[in-house]
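Hi everyone, sorry if this is the wrong subforum. Our group has a chain we'd like a structural model of before ordering constructs, and none of us has done structure prediction before. Sequence below.
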Amino acid sequence: MSIRVALVEDDDDIRRQTVACLNAEPDIECVGEYGTAEDLIAAMDRIRPDVVLMSIGLPGQDGIAGVRQLKPLYPSVEFVMFTAHDSLVLEAMQAGATGYLIKPELPEKLIAAVRE
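Answer:
Right subforum, don't worry. Here is the predicted structure as tokens:
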């Protein structure tokens, strides 16, 4: 059974590269890619991810607020912050994030984090 992953990243190039990296793995399925937390929130019931890779710096609602809103509604979903803002990681973990990756991340570390 595949690990179902959703990605929330507002940088188009990073989003495309990350989705390609995820989809190259036989046991990972990228079930959605979004540029805003609001778009993910609207799709959560439909896509039902196991893992969400969430950028912190997003237009509109930031990723930390998105996790704070979604984690109580989807407690079994693992939220991994995918960010260049390592100074905000503690706040993200307090909001319900399970872990974090600092961008840009090597593909091997990205895949390992999703599998964990």
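For your construct planning: The chain is about 40% helix and 25% strand. The mean pLDDT is 91.
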